[in-house]
């Protein structure tokens, strides 16, 4: 059976943690920064985890 390739966009956007969770960066951070408050930009700076409802889909695009 051939190897399963990793989806290229997932390689760039997600990282897998040691416990099996998948980390992602926050959305809404790229454009129109002048229209967002400092508090909003600060809170978007950190990472977040992929929601459980989407975990199965992303997990299939990123074989181990």
How does this model look, in words?
The chain contains three helices and three strands. By secondary structure, it is α+β, with helices and mostly antiparallel strands. It has one domain. Strands 1-2-3 form a three-stranded antiparallel β-sheet. Strand 1 and strand 2 form a beta hairpin. The radius of gyration is 15 Å and the shape is elongated. It starts with 7 loop residues before the first helix and ends with a helix. The model has no long low-confidence stretch (mean pLDDT 92).
Domain count: 1
Mean pLDDT: 92
For the biggest sheet, the summary is: 3 strands, antiparallel
Low-confidence runs: none
Radius of gyration: 15 Å
Q: Main sheet: which strands, in order across?
A: 1-2-3
SS field, number of helical segments:
3
Distance between the termini: 16 Å
Strand segment count: 3
Structural class: alpha+beta
Helix content: 25-40%
SSE ordering: HEEHEH
Topology, element by element:
Elements: H1 8-13, E1 14-16, E2 22-25, H2 38-43, E3 47-49, H3 52-61
Antiparallel strand pairs: 1-2, 2-3
Write a concise synopsis of the structure shown.
The protein is 34% helix and 16% strand. The chain contains 3 helices and 3 strands, in the order αββαβα.
Keywords:
single chain, 64 residues, alpha+beta, three-stranded antiparallel beta sheet, 3 strands
């Amino acid at each position: 059976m051939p190897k399963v390739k990793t989806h290229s966009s997932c390689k760039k956007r997600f990282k897998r943690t040691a416990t099996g969770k998948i980390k992602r960066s926050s959305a809404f951070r790229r454009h129109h920064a002048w229209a967002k408050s400092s508090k909003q930009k600060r809170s978007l700076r950190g990472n977040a985890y992929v929601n459980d409802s989407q975990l199965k889909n992303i997990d299939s695009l990123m074989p181990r």
